[in-house]
């Protein structure tokens, strides 16, 4: 792999982690997501129109349009689930689980539905992914006594509300991973029927319309209702308050700030531009290097996001907790790399 491709993918991974940090720290992640996707669409559509005219107005097959519509709807569900997960759980919990679930599902579908077999590298990759997900989730903490869980571990055993919200965050993160696997599978086929930049523009238009429609349907008041039953507004962590030793789940008092649900267009525009730029960098990398080389480096965003959440947003309850979170995220990246080389 050339240094150019490596640099493109590292920058893309940093951008992906950055927009997730911005989304997690938004007062209203779902509406921020919708505004961000609309921003990206407004930038992409004119560029795609110019490109389409400049390349001789290539035909767009009906199958490609259908796949773009299905993928766009899948991405809309992805943003709904991701936003709800971020309102309940930590960045360093939600992000690794969502990103780590997708490759596991791809392997499971290949083995169970297509009769594929894993070699040594693939098997080691699955083990690393599962170990990483367990290290991030740490289900054994729920069995700890309140006294034990309060000394360098989580406080979920002593706080039923925190425990419930953490479980909900994990389930929503898993649902997010399912949607990543779903729309990624559709995109692999759709981007072969329609030129990638035009295909992406089509699905972003669908995602924008679907997200705005969802928000309109669930809107029932000036501030809007919960996006998912049981979703409640709460203070969110500041972007960069370095702290360790808090209660976890963003509960470190010095790291929390009250953020209103009012429109935050600068944040939304920044997220939309980061979304678009990160994806375009990956498309460029795909033209210069094989998928097996590109895919693993994309997952390095998991480590960046987990490290920021644990160390800068005050999500870790201590150094040991931070090590579990970042170490688990690193294992997820290792698993993704091994699975990529298996293919």
Strand tally is 2
Task: Supply Rg.
Answer: 20 Å
Counting H and I runs of at least 4 residues, what is the number of helices? Answer: 12
Unreliable segments (pLDDT under 50, ≥5 consecutive)? 143-155, 220-236, 243-262
Mean pLDDT over the full residue set = 80
* N- and C-termini, Cα separation: 17 Å
Query: β content, as a range?
Result: under 5%
Q: Secondary-structure element sequence? A: HHHHHHHHEEHHHH
Structure description:
With 343 residues, the protein is an all-alpha fold. Helices cover 71% and strands 1% of the residues. It contains twelve helices and two strands. A two-stranded antiparallel ribbon has the order 1-2. The longest helix has 34 residues. The radius of gyration is 20 Å and the shape is globular.
Label this structure with key terms.
single chain, 343 residues, mainly alpha, two-stranded antiparallel ribbon, 12 helices
């Amino acid at each position: 792999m050339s240094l150019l491709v490596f640099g493109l993918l590292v920058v893309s991974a940093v951008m992906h982690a950055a927009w997730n940090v911005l989304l997690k720290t938004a007062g209203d992640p779902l509406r921020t997501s919708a505004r961000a996707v609309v921003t990206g669409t407004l930038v992409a559509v004119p560029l795609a129109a110019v490109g389409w005219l400049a390349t001789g107005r290539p035909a767009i097959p009906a199958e490609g349009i259908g796949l773009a519509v299905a993928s766009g709807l899948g991405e809309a569900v992805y943003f709904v689930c991701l936003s709800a997960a971020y309102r309940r759980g930590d960045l360093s919990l939600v992000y690794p689980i969502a990103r780590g679930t997708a490759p596991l599902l791809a392997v499971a579908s290949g083995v169970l539905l297509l009769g594929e077999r894993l070699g040594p590298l693939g098997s080691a990759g699955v083990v690393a992914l599962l170990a990483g997900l367990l290290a991030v989730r740490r289900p054994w903490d729920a069995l700890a006594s309140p006294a034990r869980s309060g000394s360098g571990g989580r406080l979920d055993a002593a706080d039923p509300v925190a425990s419930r919200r953490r479980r909900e965050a994990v389930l929503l993160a898993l649902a997010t991973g399912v949607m990543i696997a779903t729309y990624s599978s559709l995109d692999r086929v759709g981007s072969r029927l329609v030129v990638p930049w035009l295909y992406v523009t089509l699905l972003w238009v669908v995602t924008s319309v679907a997200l705005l429609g969802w928000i309109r349907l669930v809107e029932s008041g000036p501030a809007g209702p919960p996006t998912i039953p049981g979703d409640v507004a709460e203070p969110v962590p500041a972007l960069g308050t370095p702290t360790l030793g808090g209660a976890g789940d963003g509960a470190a008092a010095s790291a929390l700030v009250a953020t209103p649900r009012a429109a935050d267009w600068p944040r939304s525009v920044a997220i939309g531009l980061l979304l678009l730029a990160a994806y375009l960098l990956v498309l460029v990398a795909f033209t210069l290097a094989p998928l097996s080389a590109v895919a693993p480096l994309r997952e390095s965003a998991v480590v960046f996001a987990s490290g920021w959440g644990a160390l800068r947003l005050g999500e870790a309850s201590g150094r040991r907790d931070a090590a579990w979170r970042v170490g688990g995220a690193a294992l997820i990246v290792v698993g993704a790399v091994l699975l990529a080389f298996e293919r």
